[in-house]
Amino acid sequence: MNLVQLLKEREEAAASFRNPHTSPLAAVARHEFPRDRPLVFGSAPGCDVQLDGVAPNALQISALDDHFETGEGTRLEPGSRVELGRYTLRLSHQNFPAVVVLDPDAPRLKTGPFPVWFDPDPGFRVAARLVRDSAPREEVVLSTRGNRRRALRLGKLEFVLQGKTMALSALRLLEPGQDESAVSIFFRDATTGHESYEVGRYVDAESLGGDEYALDFNRAYNPTCAFSPLYNCPIPPRENVLPVAVRAGERNPH
């Protein structure tokens, strides 16, 4: 475990929560995209998303199958941020396109909650091997806003933690903007709902080549919905519950 790098990452994460253009604490509204027309942003009474201090009909954005487009035809990728007046518009696709409005005047930017972490512990960085399913299959991942999100089940990551052999199902979300090589782990453990966030946490599998990976639970992080209900986050699958207390990574911010 590179302690210097880990602490730098935590410092950067804490700073991003103070940034009104990136912080989920700045989120003040969420709007789902209609299937048959664009969303109109502006200060006019008839706009879908009314924003003080901008032009009456300032911007139109349409959601397409795998990206977004402005009324002028500019392509915007999933996860893009568009600044409009004092606001930042964060575009989320997930096959359920939506926009989250960030406002620098949001009071929670000052009050939090802000991310907090367990102390670093090198014992929570482990080597893991991906035991692939004979035929990777698509499955549904439930989310915090009730959407049924599509994912490819890759197999199980097997590893030894605290002297016990364990396994976690490895998934790849089948959504626009997702890295085709990503291996996502959504998990719960004995701290969930107490010392760590009640929905669960995520940890990214770091490829070491072939089917070998590293899992660094010091880098386990909370879903964005731990800080705002306006975000839509995957819920860990039922089998992904570790029988030990993983006192590493992000703690419960509340």
Short description:
The chain is mainly beta and 254 residues long.
Structural summary, described in words:
Strand 15 (206-209) and strand 16 form a beta hairpin. The chain is globular, with a radius of gyration of 20 Å. The model has no long low-confidence stretch (mean pLDDT 96). The longest helix is centred in the N-terminal third of the chain and has 14 residues, at 3-16. The strands form four sheets. Strands 3-2-4-5-6 form a five-stranded mixed sheet, with no helix packed on it. A five-stranded antiparallel sheet has the order 12-11-10-16-15, with no helix packed on it. It has a four-stranded antiparallel sheet with strand order 1-9-8-7, with no helix packed on it. The chain has helices at residues 3-16, 108-111, and strands at 27-32, 39-42, 49-50, 59-63, 68-70, 75-76, 81-84, 87-92, 98-102, 125-142, 148-161, 164-173, 184-187, 201-204, 206-209, 212-216. The two termini are 27 Å apart. The chain contains two helices and 16 strands. The protein folds into two domains: 3-14 and 114-226, no CATH class; 22-109, Tumour Suppressor Smad4 (Sandwich), CATH 2.60.200. By secondary structure, it is mainly beta.
- Shape summary: globular
| Element order: H for helix, E for strand | HEEEEEEEEEHEEEEEEE
Rg, alpha carbons: 20 Å
In the predicted model, the low-confidence regions spanning at least 5 consecutive residues are none
